[in-house]
Design brief:
42% of the residues lie in helices and 22% in strands. The radius of gyration is 29 Å and the shape is elongated. Strands 1-5-4-3-2 form a 5-stranded antiparallel sheet, with no helix packed on it. It contains 2 helices and 5 strands. Keywords: Signal.
Length: 102
């Protein structure tokens, strides 16, 4: 009776323990190809930050010249239709970035 109870508990507990364990890496301290987990985590974080910056950059709209009929505002921005642009100087070139609606 006790053996069956222990066997049932073992059968139900083992899959739960395996499912929640995740990936485990075992290394010897003398291993030459030792992975620095903290450096790896930092590198992955930097890659995620870079990917987010690329997504943010893709959402921005840059113009090298404004369309005709833009109106200059006292704040230094330009209004072209319903879209607003802000001047931006980059590598001796005048660019204009679209100001997102608020």
């Amino acid at each position: 009776m006790w053996r069956r109870l222990i066997y049932l508990l073992f059968c139900f507990a083992l899959p739960l323990a395996v499912a929640s364990a995740g990936q485990i890496i075992v290394q010897k301290s003398s291993d030459e190809n030792k992975v620095d987990i903290f450096a790896l985590k930092q590198e992955l974080l930097q890659q995620q930050i870079w990917q987010q910056r690329l997504r943010d950059q893709a959402q921005l709209r840059w113009l090298s010249t404004l369309p005709l009929g833009c109106i200059f505002s006292p704040q230094g921005d330009y209004q072209c239709g319903l879209t607003w642009y802000r001047p931006y100087r980059y590598q001796q070139q005048q660019l204009y970035i679209e100001i997102p609606p608020q």
